[in-house]
Specification:
The protein is globular, with a radius of gyration of 24 Å. Strands 6-5-7 form a 3-stranded antiparallel beta sheet. Strands 11-10-12 form a 3-stranded antiparallel beta sheet. Strands 1-2 form a two-stranded antiparallel sheet. 49% of the residues lie in helices and 10% in strands. The protein has 2 domains: 265 residues, no CATH class; 155 residues, Butyryl-CoA Dehydrogenase, subunit A, domain 3. Helix 3 crosses helix 4 and helix 5 runs antiparallel to helix 6. With 465 residues, it is mostly helical. It binds zinc ion (ZN) (2 copies). The site of one zinc ion has 8 residues, from loops.
Amino acid sequence: MPYPTLVACRHCDALFRRPRLLPGGQTACCSRCGSTLYRESAAQLDSLCAITVAALVTFIIAQAFPIIELDANGITSESSLIGALAVLWSQGMYAVASLVFCATVLFPLVEIVALLYLLLPIRRGIVPPGFRHVMHVIGFVRPWGMLEVFMVGILVAIVKLVSISRVMPQTALFAFAALTLMLTVVAMFDFRRLWEIADSLRAPLIGGDNDPGHYAPKLRSTRDSSAEGADGVAGHVTAKDAGLACCHVCGQLESRQLLARTPRKSHKQHKPRCTRCHAPMHLRRPDSLRRTWAFLSAAAILYIPANVLPIMNTATLAHDRGDTILSGIVHFWLTGEWLIASIVFIASIMVPMLKISALALLALTSQRRSRWRTAERTTLYRVVEVIGRWSMLDIFVIALTVALVRFGTFGTVTAGPGAIAFGAVVILTMLASMQFDPRLIWDPVSRAAPVAEEPSQYTMEHPHD
Ligand SMILES: [Zn+2]
Ligand SMILES: [Zn+2]
């Protein structure tokens, strides 16, 4: 039996009662660990649809036209994103080409189209067929679409290429800039709210909280600062303590009896599933720490070849040299491009290293059931989740440079084997942070409350922004 009036924090499992109305543009935060519980988007469903349609059109323009054109002593070279991928592919860099293709073409396109497929009918009060599957697809592709990182990658590539030739921005550059802005607005919408909106459309008469007038099609857009901050609740009851399990995918709370109902032996055949999204239900991610360690160790091992092997080979008439990540940064620094040197240093050297050590620290302390600085460790986890994708920057810069610098005997750039190792490090660290269950940080400090018969008696929470 689901509990639609309760919400559990995804990061610390604290249980809250959902306020009846959260004014538009406000965010309800967990008073225990500070994570966002849910967000009422200021954008109305209508404007969200409009922006998504515009994003689709801009996406097509961005992919169809060249991004930049180089002009070195009369020899010109221009490339679109697809062209850059073709060059990488023809050089035999299949892994890097596929990686860039997925992150900048396939996944963003799937996300935009899937969102439109859901939003357009929902705006009219209809839940489209296959809603559940499409939501799962969006949840899968969303973390891997990296257009905003690619945009910064274009800018870094421009600064880099200015030193060897004249650089002329082309149509797709502006399209990518606009697309980045639009997708940022779309990303502000907490798309998991669509589960609730769909629920309310299917069963409009269950209680005031499911009143469809409150969701689609008009979302309230007033900014109300009068909502009180979290009032001090002495100790928090977690969903686990209250006898509830929280779905990892849609956030629905279900009675733990659902998990207990299946005998362990036939676990494979009858996995307990969420009644709303049909995802397998667990109290905590199964084997979270073991999987985190597996991905982390693989990432740490590959971090060595990623830094030792050349990621880019430059061949000109005069010389032929291979650049590692570090030597590329040193080159930027020596030629006076301090800002770019710092950006690439932070994205390519610092972020992966910090990410690996931060995740190792989180996994180790959770394994030892440490009670040390739980709130700070949760913040650390959130930071790791947000910055992880930015390491892909260097891969995008390489892809663009390789595609553009093709001046025959004057100079060509090819991608080196270090790029594959580096791309793998980024993916593995992202997988490691996805496998880590941050609720493990809080489990040792959660008070062992008696299992409640009626979970709604617990903490009343107010939103604050
Ligand atoms: Zn929390
Ligand atoms: Zn679910």
